[in-house]
Design a protein that fits this description.
Largest sheet: 5 strands, parallel
Strand content: 5-15%
Order of helices and strands: HEHHEHHEHHEHE
Number of helices: 8
Number of domains: 2
Strand order of the largest sheet: 3-2-1-4-5
Structural class: alpha/beta
Distance between the termini: 21 Å
């Protein structure tokens, strides 16, 4: 559900309550929800010009300012990126993957997202490994954070990490 959709739902729920049940000093806090792709997560472990923005995203999650989620297929994509980068041992890569579990952000890829990713890949000529993150963001009402400029410029659901605030 998008932030706007959740806010509308909460407002409707409050409107349906009797006036004595509603407290005007009660504030609903809605955290933005983002799906991460491996181009962002890999920058937590590989230092380059995008690392600062990627680490800010991670820090905001740890502080509780935002919610993050990733489909479980990220483990394979992330391992591939880290392995191709070189300089990392198998133990380093395994530790990076464990970090994803420790953060409690991994969610099973939903069948609906997988099917939507196939549609997007065929219609837009995308690689499945990119479409799956877009589909997950689209269907969950979240935004995709990516370091892929092509994806960020072509799709409304995607935000380049340099534009993350």
């Amino acid at each position: 559900m998008s932030e706007d959709g959740l806010l509308r739902y909460l407002l409707r729920e409050n409107a349906a309550r009797k006036s004595e049940e509603y407290s005007s000093d009660y504030i609903y806090l809605v955290k933005p929800i983002y799906v991460l792709d491996p181009t962002v997560v890999s920058r937590w472990f590989i230092r380059d010009e995008a690392s600062e923005a990627a680490l800010k995203i991670r820090a905001d999650y740890v502080r509780g300012h935002i919610s993050l989620t990733v489909p479980d297929c990220i483990l394979f994509h992330l391992a591939d990126i880290l392995q191709k980068h070189g300089g990392l041992t198998g133990t380093d890569i395994a530790a990076a993957l464990k970090t994803m579990y420790d953060m409690h952000i991994i969610m099973p890829l939903r069948a609906q997202s997988a099917c939507r990713a196939v549609e997007m890949a065929v219609e837009d000529g995308l690689e499945m490994s990119k479409a799956v993150y877009l589909a997950e963001a689209e269907l969950s009402g979240a935004r995709l954070l990516t370091n892929d400029e092509q994806i960020a410029s072509r799709y409304y659901a995607a935000i380049h990490i340099s534009n993350y605030r």
